[in-house]
User: Which sequence fits this backbone?
């Protein structure tokens, strides 16, 4: 294993994350997984949208594309189709990927294009100052739900699994070593791999919901996590956001939730060209 | 390309031009009246070794085009009004990140869903100012099926050379009409590609421009690692809040396209040399104007036509010169006066500028334009 600091751009340090933010833990696990993937640094491209997690992309010394809000999977689709030889990773957040960009995410999953998509779920819009996200638990206080959230949150993994992703996993910032393995399996998966990571925003979410210190929030993740490697299909799952109870009070499935094989999109498109299709 | 005349539809000519220009990536979303371009590319690209993908919407279409272009492919999308409105954010992104790409906007009646199967020139300003911020703008307006082909090829030449998005703008009439067309040959060696870095990867700065304001661009995965962002950035592509850096790159992005006339001449004219009344029109409206010029001449009025081929940057100099040699300008357009104000501005009050507009989903007719011309030239004053 090499020194993952070679994957960072010193010129863009210090990073812009707040003290106590979990995103750095997640990024570290991802870089260690890329290191273990053992491919040329030039063959890795990272595409991100807008938000705290997406902003990480600038700090990474790969071919990096910091796009518009929610659209990273669409940019990545074009890049991957043009250059199937590249390992294309998408970084997104819960607002970026599930609200404004939800359409692109489900269609990338449906196509089963060989992208590895990491969704940092901190249950809030952090960069804009703590507004309601499509993952914010029922009842939670945010700057745009000052009287408590009256909307139901998405379960990202169920959504993307239903859309057709051939690899779906969920991990916790609390368990970076487990997360690293999960990322590596996603990176090696030949198709659309979606990994949701529960990450914390103490500054704009925890603070307003009485969740305590950053450390206390991380322990809260562990308490909320139920089974490792429990298949989504088992029907026994109890997911994070199924009740309107207090935030993060319900167990959630972690580990690999879906891992199946289906023809990959770029290969099918390229087969048309190789077959010299013409009408 | 085949020098013999052929019967060809406008949208088919667009797809043929794109393939001839080396376009090898198309991402799009179905919308009338542009869908035949997508259909043509879906048929043609596999055999050309290229990639066609139908995306989930127009936002995604232009995103995929930009991603593919960064991967090194010449890339395009095509759409119409509603889809073009959705693309605005990514037109700005492509301009800001300086990613070559071609966007075809086949205009239909607007606003909103409007008149989907009817011609219009309602997007003359949206192509220029639709995205937020100050962006460079290169917009080409063909007036015949052969010109759709020719200017689609030119759009790729401009996009690759200036590292910027280029728009081809025409309307439903030209899109769906079939006419005899002789397609001009693409020069030997094809459309020149984008400028490549002359320095090794360690010294590459993706926004460090040469003296002409154009920065060489490397492909992702070619050994050059770099950052691309829609945030204001420095030479390295790294985000910056520094006002001087932001201003310098802002200015450079606008100025770098200054020599576009070396790729395509900004206007074409008809009987303008001795004209006392000049009609300014482009696209479908120019076809009606051409008829009107002929009929006016038969009636003893020395009319001529000034036809912008490059709509943006607006051909100020051509309009100014024309205004200096005629008694009046008539602006014929299928909207309620979008280009008229540009002509007034460029003419600078030298001569009257007479509006001749139609925006009801029907083509502007030669008779309407002729009436505007005749009103300027009382019967007794004619030659």
Assistant:
């Amino acid at each position: 294993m090499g020194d993952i600091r070679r994957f960072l751009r010193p010129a863009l340090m210090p990073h812009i994350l707040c003290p106590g933010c979990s995103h750095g833990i997640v990024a570290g696990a991802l870089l260690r997984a890329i290191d273990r993937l053992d491919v040329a640094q030039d063959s890795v491209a990272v595409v991100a949208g807008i938000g705290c997690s997406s902003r990480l992309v600038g700090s990474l010394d790969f071919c990096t594309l910091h796009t518009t809000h929610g659209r990273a999977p669409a940019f990545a689709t074009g890049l991957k189709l043009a250059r199937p030889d590249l390992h294309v990773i998408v970084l997104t957040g819960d607002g970026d990927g599930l609200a404004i960009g939800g359409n692109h995410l489900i269609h990338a999953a449906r196509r089963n294009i060989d992208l590895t998509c990491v969704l940092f779920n901190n249950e809030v819009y952090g960069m804009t100052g703590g507004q309601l996200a499509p993952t914010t638990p029922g009842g939670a206080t945010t700057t745009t739900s000052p009287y408590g959230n009256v909307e139901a949150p998405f379960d990202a993994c169920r959504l993307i699994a239903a859309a057709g992703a051939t690899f779906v996993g969920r991990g916790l910032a609390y368990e970076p070593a487990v997360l690293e393995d999960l990322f590596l399996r996603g990176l090696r998966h030949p198709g659309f791999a979606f990994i949701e990571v529960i990450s914390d925003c103490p500054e704009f979410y925890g603070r307003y919901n009485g969740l305590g210190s950053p450390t206390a929030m991380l322990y809260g993740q562990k308490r909320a996590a139920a089974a490792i490697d429990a298949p989504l299909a088992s029907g026994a799952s109890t997911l994070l956001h199924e009740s309107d109870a207090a935030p993060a009070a319900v167990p959630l499935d972690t580990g690999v939730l879906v891992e199946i094989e289906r023809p990959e999109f770029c290969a099918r498109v390229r087969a048309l060209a190789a077959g010299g299709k013409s009408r | 390309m085949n020098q013999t005349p052929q019967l060809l539809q406008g949208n088919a000519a667009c797809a043929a031009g794109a393939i001839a220009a080396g376009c090898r990536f198309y991402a799009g979303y179905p919308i009338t009246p542009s869908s035949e371009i997508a259909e043509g590319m879906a048929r043609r690209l596999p055999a050309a070794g290229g990639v066609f993908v139908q995306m989930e919407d127009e936002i995604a279409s232009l995103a995929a085009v930009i991603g593919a272009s960064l991967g090194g492919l010449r890339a395009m999308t095509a759409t119409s009004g509603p889809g073009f409105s959705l693309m605005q954010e990514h037109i700005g992104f492509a301009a800001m990140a300086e990613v070559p790409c071609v966007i075809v906007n086949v205009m239909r009646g607007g606003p909103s869903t409007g008149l989907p199967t009817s011609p219009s020139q309602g997007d003359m300003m949206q192509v220029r100012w639709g995205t937020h911020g100050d962006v460079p703008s290169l917009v080409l307006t063909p007036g015949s099926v052969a010109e759709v082909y020719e200017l689609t090829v030119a759009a790729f030449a401009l996009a690759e050379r200036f590292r910027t998005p280029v728009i081809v703008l025409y309307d439903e009439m030209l899109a769906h009409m079939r006419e005899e067309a002789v397609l001009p040959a693409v020069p030997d060696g094809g459309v020149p590609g984008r400028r490549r870095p002359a320095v090794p990867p360690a010294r590459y700065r993706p926004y460090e421009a040469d003296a002409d304001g154009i920065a060489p661009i490397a492909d992702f995965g070619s050994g050059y690692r770099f950052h691309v962002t829609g945030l204001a950035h420095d030479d390295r592509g790294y985000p910056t809040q520094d006002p001087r850096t932001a201003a310098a790159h802002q200015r450079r992005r606008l100025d770098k396209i200054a020599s576009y006339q070396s790729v395509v001449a900004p206007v074409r004219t008809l009987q303008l040399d001795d004209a006392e009344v000049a009609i300014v029109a482009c696209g479908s409206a120019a076809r009606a104007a051409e008829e009107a010029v002929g009929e006016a001449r038969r009636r003893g009025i020395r009319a001529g036509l000034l036809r912008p081929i490059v709509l943006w940057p607006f051909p100020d100099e051509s309009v100014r010169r024309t205004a200096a040699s005629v008694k009046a300008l008539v602006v014929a357009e299928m909207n309620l006066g979008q280009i008229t104000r540009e002509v007034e501005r460029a003419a600078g009050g030298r001569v009257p500028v007479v509006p001749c507009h139609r925006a009801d989903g029907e083509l502007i007719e030669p008779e309407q334009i002729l009436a505007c011309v005749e009103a300027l030239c009382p019967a007794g004053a004619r030659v």
In short: Residues 162 and 268 of chain A are 21 Å apart (CA to CA).
